[in-house]
């Protein structure tokens, strides 16, 4: 791979890269660490001495996916020191919340060669585990030079990415990257086949399934749930639509749909959980345009109650982190965002695991297999646009038996597809002894669930 050409382009683009990162509030706090200007972790985060496993998860979704694996790795050997790197603040907060006492957090280095080398020298990892196909040329090259095994978990290659990677020059780059990875654990047969087509050695590719199916339901003590109950203030038998991880354009469609349905179902309520909670103020402005006022969760979290007497607003904004999973349990049905607009979709499994029927739009490239699974068992329905979304919400609200059946089927689908975490652990186990790549490569990759794949 022409690494020098990539680095030349990276250097030329560095002013734009830095400007973009500085312009994003959720990326700004970690920038000094990502540039190698500060040590990746504090002086006490990696003591006592022991092998360091570096796990990279870009943001919130990847942290949620990999958290059970991190916990399982730590449980197998408490002497292991695990560091989880993220790019965003939401990712950092998820690590601190979900992996407190299990792993230390650090920000992932930018892929400048001098930054990556400094980061690896300071961290001294014996194993690098990364989530969902985050391929960085200088990082993988430096890890290979240091003979640190690299394992991709929950790997996926979206249709859009696969199409781009077929371009002649780009394909050569990806082949060089995939050849550097010690083991690729992919979500589906499609993902595994694509990895091999793009250049991953077939003997290092395994289809193990999606570890997101092994996510435990959010455990919340009654005392923790009480503030949420108070915020929702849901009357008995009143229907509640929970819309999670929404984006601009989707909130308007949801408000319009539910406002229309309230002429028939006057006690219907809607919770909107925007993907980026800093957009809560913008959503308030949007709702004001409809003549509506929202009740923000953060105000109650701060001890402020912005209810107007007994007339509680029927639209609620979940603008706090880490509570969406618990809020889903109160839903009558759920909508998962990033699907009515071309984002690619977010976590469809969280509401399904609570036994809630799930609605989503046509754009599910990031969660295609899960969307198809839920559609296939009747636990989820794909809608083409906002009008169809409103119509399907109305159908489910008007047919309790069908709605409850869909929820049970969604929950059963999650249970039937668990087990990827166990298989991942078994396949990673040989790499945990801290052996160098040169000691492992003469052997075939650890055996496990395999697929028939062909090289392009």
What does it look like?
The chain has 456 residues and is of the alpha/beta class. The protein has 20 helices and 14 strands. Helix 4 links the parallel strand 2 and strand 3. 45% of the residues are buried. The model is unreliable at 435-456 (pLDDT under 50).
Summed up:
By secondary structure, the protein is α/β, with parallel strands linked by helices.
Helix-strand makeup class = alpha/beta
| General form | globular
Uncertain runs are 435-456
- The share of residues in extended strands comes to 5-15%
Total helices: the number is 20
Number of strands: 14
Query: Measured on Cα atoms, how large is the radius of gyration?
Result: 23 Å
C-alpha termini separation: 18 Å
Question: What share of the residues lie within helices?
Answer: 40-55%
Report strand order across the widest sheet. 3-2-1-4-5-6-7
Major β-sheet profile: 7 strands, parallel
Average pLDDT: 87
Write the layout of secondary structure elements.
Layout: H1 3-23, H2 31-34, E1 52-56, H3 60-76, E2 81-86, H4 89-98, E3 104-107, H5 113-123, E4 127-131, H6 137-145, E5 150-155, H7 159-164, H8 168-178, E6 183-186, H9 189-197, E7 205-207, H10 222-232, E8 240-246, H11 250-261, E9 269-274, H12 280-289, E10 294-296, H13 297-301, E11 315-317, H14 324-327, E12 333-336, H15 349-353, E13 358-360, H16 368-377, E14 380-382, H17 386-398, H18 400-416, H19 420-428, H20 437-440
Parallel strand pairs: 1-2, 1-4, 2-3, 4-5, 5-6, 6-7, 8-9, 8-12, 9-11, 10-11, 12-13, 13-14
Helix pairs in contact: 3-4, 5-6, 11-17
């Amino acid at each position: 791979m022409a690494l020098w050409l990539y680095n030349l382009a990276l250097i030329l683009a560095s002013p734009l890269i830095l400007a973009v990162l500085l312009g994003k509030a959720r990326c700004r706090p970690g920038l000094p660490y990502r540039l190698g200007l500060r040590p990746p972790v504090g002086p006490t985060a990696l003591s006592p001495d022991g092998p360091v496993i570096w796990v990279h998860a870009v943001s919130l979704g990847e942290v949620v996916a990999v958290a059970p694996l991190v916990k399982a790795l730590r449980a197998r050997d408490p002497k292991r020191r695990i560091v989880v790197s993220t790019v965003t603040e939401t990712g950092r907060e998820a690590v601190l919340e979900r992996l407190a006492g299990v792993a230390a957090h650090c920000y992932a280095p930018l892929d400048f060669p001098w930054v990556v080398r400094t980061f690896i020298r300071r961290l001294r990892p014996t194993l690098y585990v990364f989530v969902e196909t985050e391929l960085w040329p200088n990082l993988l090259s430096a890890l290979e030079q240091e003979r640190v095994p690299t394992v991709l978990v929950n790997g996926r290659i979206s249709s859009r990415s696969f199409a781009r990677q077929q371009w002649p020059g780009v394909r050569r780059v990806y082949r060089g990257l995939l050849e550097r990875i010690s083991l690729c654990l992919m979500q589906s047969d499609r993902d595994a086949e694509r990895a091999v087509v793009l250049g991953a050695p077939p003997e290092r590719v395994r289809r193990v399934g999606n570890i997101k199916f092994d996510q435990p339901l959010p455990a919340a003590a009654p005392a923790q749930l009480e503030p949420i109950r108070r915020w929702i203030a849901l009357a008995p038998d009143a229907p509640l639509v929970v819309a999670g991880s929404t984006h601009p354009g989707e909130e308007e469609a949801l408000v319009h749909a539910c406002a229309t349905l309230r002429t028939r179902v006057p006690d219907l309520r809607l919770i909107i959980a925007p993907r980026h909670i800093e957009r809560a103020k913008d959503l308030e402005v949007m709702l004001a345009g409809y003549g509506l006022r929202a009740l923000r969760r953060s105000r109650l979290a701060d001890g402020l109650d912005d209810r107007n007497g007994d007339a509680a607003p029927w639209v609620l904004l979940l603008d706090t982190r880490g509570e969406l999973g618990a809020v889903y349990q109160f839903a009558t049905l759920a909508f998962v965002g990033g699907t009515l607009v071309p984002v690619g979709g977010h976590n469809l499994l969280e509401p399904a695991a609570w036994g809630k029927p799930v609605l989503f739009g046509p754009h599910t490239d990031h969660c295609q297999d899960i969307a198809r699974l839920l559609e296939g068992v009747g636990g989820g329905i794909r809608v083409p646009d906002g009008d169809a979304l409103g119509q399907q919400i109305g159908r489910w609200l008007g047919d309790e038996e069908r709605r409850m059946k869909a929820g049970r089927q969604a929950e059963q689908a999650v249970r039937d597809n668990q087990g990827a975490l166990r298989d991942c652990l078994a396949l990673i186990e040989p790499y945990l002894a801290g052996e160098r790549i040169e000691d492992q490569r003469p052997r075939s990759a650890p055996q496990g669930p395999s697929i028939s794949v062909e090289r392009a």
